[in-house]
Design goal:
The chain is α+β, with helices and mostly antiparallel strands. It has helices at about 15-25, 45, 55-65, 75-90, 110-115, 115-130, 145-155, 165-170, 185-190, 200, 205-215, 215-225, 255-275, 310-330, 355-370; strands spanning about 5-10, 30-35, 40, 70, 95-100, 100-105, 135-140, 160, 240-245, 280-290, 295-305, 330-340, 340-345, 390. Helix 4 runs antiparallel to helix 6 and helix 13 packs antiparallel against helix 14 (about 310-330).
């Protein structure tokens, strides 16, 4: 017995760009690019011209010379996300957020009071359009994986229901890139082996897939290709890490520039920690060099913290240690993740020796930014510089 298609995957369409078009009627129907140095988001009009997220700004403008480039407004995107998630939680208590603009919803127990999963999905899309002013695509299926694929296939502004008896018919002809976990490197490896569709991967024995792709990745992707995904919607799951990154383009960056960007990222992340009553134990620095090789550096605290000054000091130390390699190879991306998150109410209080001033300063700065916006106060080192908008790491998704 396969069960019923009761899992919804709801995904806002071209989220950042759609918020810009919603808030500025003159942008509607026109190609919009969010972010200048690197594309943070592109409207569907810009995507039709070949513009893609994470593309360099110069290349994007060559592809779409008439695009309107706007700076990102993270506060506006955060507010829109909160409004949409309020609708999700009003629809069902079983909501598992994946990122700022997508979530899974389990609606299997609502038939008597709210109708079929398809009827619930229709109303959800209507509410998001009417109450928040944004288009949202929804996939409905028996499993989380299939629901996510269905929402992607239905874009833009679509609804697709994959009934259990249609699962193989729907999934097997799709390109392997649709599988959750197949990125560019894995796709290229599969293509070299002559495997281009999900069905071709499903024809392999599991042991063969593991040998070709590695034990964990091979087993995972082979299971998905054969429609095995037992994970339920988990409304209690809390994120184990948060992070932000900034793509830097290919021009050389001085150590001083990198320090300013790092401080901006840490300021944002530490505030998110405090807003969520969370603390972190480990700081991870993520780098992508000029040759596009990636590296991570990490360091842990003796006790969990949410203090901006402590987190920044550790991040600066990691960056300083990596500076010789950055100077030799160049750098195209810098990011920070805060991991091993915990609840602040489970952390013993600090002795009131050195940190009182830092605690008070963090509290005051948070209050000022809450009232007047995130750009209302900045570090002296940032004055007169590019604001250096940082873009969220996965699972936040554009």
């Amino acid at each position: 017995m396969r069960g019923e298609a009761t899992v919804l995957h709801a995904d806002l369409d071209a989220f950042y760009a759609s918020v810009e078009q919603r808030d500025a009627p003159a942008l509607r129907g026109r190609p919009v690019i969010v972010g200048g140095g690197v594309v943070l988001a592109a409207s569907y009009e810009a995507k039709a011209r070949g513009v893609r997220t994470a593309m360099g700004g110069r290349q994007a403008r060559e592809l779409c010379p008439d695009a309107i480039v706007v700076p990102p407004r993270m506060d506006a995107y955060s507010a829109a996300s909160k409004d949409v998630f309020a609708i999700f939680r009003d629809t069902t208590p079983l909501v598992e957020g994946l990122s700022i603009d997508e979530a899974f919803l389990e609606v299997g127990g609502l038939r008597r009071i709210a109708g079929t999963p398809e009827q619930i999905a229709v109303r959800l899309r209507q509410r998001v359009r009417a109450e928040v002013g944004l288009a949202i695509s929804v996939g409905v299926a028996r499993t989380k994986f299939l629901a996510k694929v269905a929402s992607a296939v239905s874009k833009p502004d679509g609804l697709l229901v994959v009934e259990p008896e249609r699962e193989q018919e729907f999934l097997l002809p799709l390109p392997v890139e649709r599988l959750w976990g197949v990125g560019a490197v894995t796709a290229e490896k599969l293509h070299r082996l002559g495997i281009r569709t999900v069905g071709q991967l499903a024809e392999l024995e599991e042991a063969t897939a593991e040998r070709l792709l590695g034990r964990a990745a091979g087993a995972h992707l082979h299971a998905l290709s054969r429609l095995r995904d037992p994970r339920p919607v988990d409304s209690t799951r809390r994120r184990g890490s948060i992070g932000s990154q900034r793509a830097l383009g290919t021009r050389p960056r001085s150590a001083a520039e990198l320090e300013v960007i790092l401080a901006q990222i840490v300021d944002r992340l530490a505030r998110r920690l405090r807003d969520g009553d969370r603390v972190c134990r480990t700081v991870v620095l993520r780098l992508r060099f000029g040759d596009y090789a990636k590296a991570t550096r990490s360091r842990s605290f003796r006790a969990p913290t949410d203090r901006t000054a402590l987190i920044l000091t550790v991040a600066q130390g990691l960056l300083a240690a990596a500076q010789p390699e950055i100077e030799a190879r160049g750098i195209t991306l810098i990011g920070v993740s805060l991991t091993q998150l915990g609840r602040i109410d489970r952390v013993p209080p600090e002795l009131p020796i050195d940190w009182d001033d830092g605690v008070r300063l963090d509290t005051v700065l948070d209050a000022v930014r809450d009232r007047f916006g995130s750009a209302s106060v900045a570090r002296a080192a940032q004055l007169g510089r590019d604001p250096g908008w940082s873009t969220p790491l996965l699972p936040e998704h554009e």
